[in-house]
């Protein structure tokens, strides 16, 4: 997805367009910057300004790399094209208050890329692309297995080793409803019917121990009947 977005950004800038590449942090911008350098290296007339992370093209088009953790740096420029990298981690306020208005003057386009991080604003915008009521939006979802450069054996090894939720999010690109929550599936568990064996233990003392999994789905419950 990074290579596709970088290629589209270069195409726009080469046509004298103003392009921004926005990522949640400086470290994340480095990934897009490295890919971009591989594309523009040796292109005649391109001026790479590493100090400010800008790529200037003949005719006035340029690509600027920005971070969403410094809000003031996202103000004051009309954009023709915008890439939001790891959109699921970028604050929604950066999109609504700074970046979306920057597309208005030039009727600019935006491309959101990233791994799902629960059903946040990134998911809501992705859903627009699945809804015929929003003809200006399109959205796609690709699995890691769709990449021919990644070994199927490695993907299967990850499936066996990782918690199911982590695998579904990172490898299947699924927007999980309660991703990131400390206690997952609480409502479903609370409303579930009692197991058939419950009455068989009437009058017994049952001790339940819980080991909460706070980052991934490793929560374990043990029940002992005395």
Read across the widest sheet, the strand sequence of neighbours is: 2-3-4-1-5-6
Q: What fraction of the residues are assigned to beta strands by DSSP?
A: 15-25%
The pLDDT mean sits at 87
Along the chain, the helix and strand elements come as HEHEEEEHEHHHHEE
The termini sit apart by: 56 Å
Quick one: overall form?
elongated
- Helicity, as a percent range: 25-40%
Supply the helix-strand structural class.
alpha/beta
- Uncertain spans: none
Continuous helix count: 7
Largest sheet, in brief, is: 6 strands, mixed
Q: How many strands?
A: 8
The radius of gyration over CA amounts to: 23 Å
Can you describe what's shown?
- The protein is α/β, with parallel strands linked by helices.
- Helix content is 31%, strand content 17%.
- It contains 7 helices and 8 strands, in the order H-E-H-E-E-E-E-H-E-H-H-H-H-E-E.
- The chain has helices spanning 2-14, 26-40, 92-102, 121-128, 152-161, 164-170, 186-190; strands spanning 18-23, 47-49, 54-56, 62-67, 81-84, 109-112, 206-211, 220-225.
- The strands form 2 sheets. The protein has a 6-stranded mixed β-sheet with strand order 2-3-4-1-5-6, covered by helices on one side. Strands 7-8 form a two-stranded antiparallel ribbon.
- Helix 1 packs across helix 2 (26-40).
- The longest helix is centred in the N-terminal third of the chain and has 15 residues, at 26-40.
- The termini are far apart.
- The model has no long low-confidence stretch (mean pLDDT 87).
